[in-house]
Prior knowledge:
Blueprint: H1 2-34, H2 38-71, H3 79-109, H4 120-152
Amino acid sequence: MRRLADALYSICITLWVGGLIGIGYVAVPVLFTHLADRSLAGYLAGNMFAIGGWLGLACGLYLLAYLFGVHRRAAWRNPVTGLVSAMLLFGVIGQFVIQPVIAGLRAEALPLPVMQSPLAEAFARWHGASSVLYLFVVLLGLALVVLQGRGRRTT
């Protein structure tokens, strides 16, 4: 059973960090480069980020459960636990605070595309905050990849 848990630990890190990079820095830029309709590109990107957000929440919760299962109370002293906790916290903020605001601004701007509406400045601010937060989570994720072995060891 421990081997399965260890395998799922590595798979969750791979899915979470790979998904963040694949969606945010590969797929979404391709959408905006190749789709003439920027509103459609934004709509599709938003859906991709939402799916990636839910995947990250699921992976983060498993990783925390794993870390506390392996290390018990000592998990709090493990830097991997701190990275996972920070990624999860920022993921929750992005998913449940920032993204709903962005979606609300898009909806409020209708029938105009949000960037052609009076809400463009507010949208740009929230989108910028979201982008910075996302980059921060990716950087934490890369640190997690580097340190992931510390989460599996019991010493």
